Amino acid sequence: MTLRTVVSWNSVISACIENLRFSDSMELFYRMRQCGFKPDETTMVTLLTACAEDGNLGMGKLVHAQVIENGQPVNCELGTSLVDMYAKCGDICFATLVFDRMFERNVWTWTAMILGLAQHGLGSKALKIFNKMEEYGIKPNHVTFLGVLCACNHAGRVEDGILLFQNMQHLHGIQPMIGHYGAMVDCFGRAGLLRKAYTFITNMPIKPDAVIWRILFNACDMHGISENSWIGKKVRKKLLELEPRRSGNFVILANKYAEVGMWEKAEYLRRNIRDRGLKKMAGISCVQIDGSIHKFVSGDDSQVAYKGIYILLDRLNLHVKMVQCE
């Protein structure tokens, strides 16, 4: 293009983010500034979305600094994006600070704060924010309820979760989606109410998917429920019926057998994985150092400093064991 405007730059940046090309979106932002274009509110909101999705706190802070430097007012949309970015990038304290300093908030602002607190395990604080939101007369939406139900999970407040789930339908007229049902199953499961969770699933008005059954399966594992118990058998059967080619389900079962010394069954399942040609997706973790994000894939030794990393991990594992023995 021979003629570019802020709108055209924003469009390309947004397209990169929609296609999960977060690094490209940041590079375009730098080029935009080098070309003499001043980013507007839309640019900042779009970039903050990219930082939130990529978990890049350093870049998110840089965008926030640009907002302050440009003298842009932090209105409802921009403030909500800042709260969401800080919460998703792990800085819940700064997310709370931005939220508290906002003069104008809408349902999405409150929801972003509630979800952020819930995801950081601060369930009781999230529920307080929800109560405050209702006091201000802000009507919650389906995402808000997903956040408060997750908050109940982390806070262990099962009765509050049941009440909120009922109020969502009967008081606010919001029909539960599969995510809300999953949150309730998780709420029961974390509290050890596995029979109640199973009954809740079987009484769902919509067909439970594999994710729902996997939540209950993980809860059984968390509370040491034997795979041979009636609930363990039923959950395993349902899970394998819905996802017969998901290797992760077989790996979890094989590990459970191995933990209790049932080596023949564990080996049978692992052989089944190999014979079917199933492959488990490798785990990925990220760490941010000096503004750069480094990704680590399970079993990948391509990192230049991988030997030093493994030595450090061995030392940390040894330190943890020594602390546990004291």
What is the secondary structure topology, with strand pairs?
Elements: H1 6-18, H2 22-34, H3 41-54, H4 57-69, H5 76-88, H6 92-101, H7 107-119, H8 123-135, H9 142-155, H10 158-170, H11 178-190, H12 194-202, H13 210-222, H14 230-242, H15 247-259, H16 263-276, E1 284-289, E2 292-297, H17 306-325
Antiparallel strand pairs: 1-2
Helix pairs in contact: 1-2, 1-3, 2-3, 3-4, 3-5, 5-6, 5-7, 6-7, 7-8, 7-9, 8-9, 9-10, 9-11, 10-11, 11-12, 11-13, 12-13, 13-14, 15-16
Give the rounded overall mean pLDDT: 84
The gross shape turns out to be: globular
Which class do the helix and strand fractions yield? mainly alpha
Distance between the termini: 67 Å
Strand content: under 5%
Number-wise, the strands total 2
Q: Round the Cα radius of gyration to an integer and report it.
A: 23 Å
- Uncertain regions: pLDDT < 50 for 5+ in a row? none
The major pleated sheet works out as:
2 strands, antiparallel
Structure description:
With 326 residues, the chain is mostly helical. Helices cover 69% and strands 4% of the residues. It has helices at residues 6-18, 22-34, 41-54, 57-69, 76-88, 92-101, 107-119, 123-135, 142-155, 158-170, 178-190, 194-202, 210-222, 230-242, 247-259, 263-276, 306-325, and strands at residues 284-289, 292-297. A two-stranded antiparallel ribbon has the order 1-2.
Quick structural summary:
With 326 residues, the protein is mainly alpha-helical. The protein has helices at residues 6-18, 22-34, 41-54, 57-69, 76-88, 92-101, 107-119, 123-135, 142-155, 158-170, 178-190, 194-202, 210-222, 230-242, 247-259, 263-276, 306-325; strands at 284-289, 292-297.
